[in-house]
Amino acid sequence: MSFSILGTGSALPATIITNDDLSRIVDTSDEWIRSRTGIGQRRVCTTETITDLAYQAAVAALENSGCRAEELNLIICATMTADDATPSMACLLQQRLGAVCAAFDINAACTGFLYAMDIAAAYFSRKPDYKILIVGADAMSKAVDWQDRSTCVLFGDGAGAAVLGAGNDLLAIEIGANGNRSPLYAPAMAGNCPFRNDVKQSLYLVMDGQEVFRFAVTAMAQTIDRVLQKAGLAKESLTWILPHQANIRIIDAAIHRMKLPGEICLTNIEQYGNTSAACVAILLDESNRSGKFKKGDLLALTAFGGGLTTGACILRWNK
Ligand code: UT7
User: Fold this and answer.
1) What is the Å distance from ligand 1's center to 263 Cα?
2) Does the domain spanning 4-168 belong to CATH 3.40.47.10?
3) pLDDT at 201
4) How many C-beta atoms lie closer than 10 Å to residue 7's C-beta?
């Protein structure tokens, strides 16, 4: 027993920030951003909180699934930018949805939605009749330094969600970590403890882009390969690949390395940039709603992110 996806949802902030908008804040250009990353614009929270977006995505996923919030047995939110350290985003959602169940957040940076799926799968092996809401939501606009052109142009804000129920459509999943702070970190609460005396840290996300790039291409190809092996499937049987949307060049290089046709690879990076834990979830929801998926399609989801973390799974679409 694994699970089936019963419904999906997503939500984005109303405000669109184009590359030209950014070129008025930092020394960059539409040409540089598009050619180096594939990003044309991103959404940024102005009046919305990330909990608001997570809530909207959750409501949409519940509607799409035909489940009521009261039927949920568990809520898992993947985020590294929750509005509060406590209560968790999941607890705030539980309250707003009117659900009566346990709720917790996990942080695996951009891989969070895959981690949430893996945790959910473990619950289903114990509780096959559960209904679980998983959410990937991040407001990276809170984490980046808007004066650092090497990072602020890459990210956007958004949320995606899925309601999972009894079924056998998760054919294989694998999550991993390669613990290392230096390629990508974003500091947590600094506090003002008068007894601490350590060196002042950056307040914002710091990234070695080239190191993450190299890691990402290998990780994407290897993780898909491993879940295919686990599921006993050939790569030719994949209908769609839904990769983490960090850089179109990472996606193209990994697809090329796997010798797969580019047409099966879904992207929305041009519109939203890298929404961290929300990327794969938003892509899943948009493809579901646009009617892209047919019953029986085989989907490979893959992500990588700070940690460094990795994750991939093979899902049979059964909706
Ligand atoms: O979810 C995981 C998160 N992160 C990632 O996946 C990021 C992975 N890495 C990447 O996507 C790419 O490494 C970046 C997009 C971050 C950078 O692309 P790159 O081709 O590796 O560029 P670079 O870092 O080698 O920089 C090339 C030049 C530098 O100038 P010089 O030293 O050659 O004069 C940078 O200062 O581009 C400059 N640069 C920019 N120029 C205009 C860096 N950022 C910008 C910018 N606009 N926004």
Assistant:
1) 26
2) yes
3) 78
4) 21
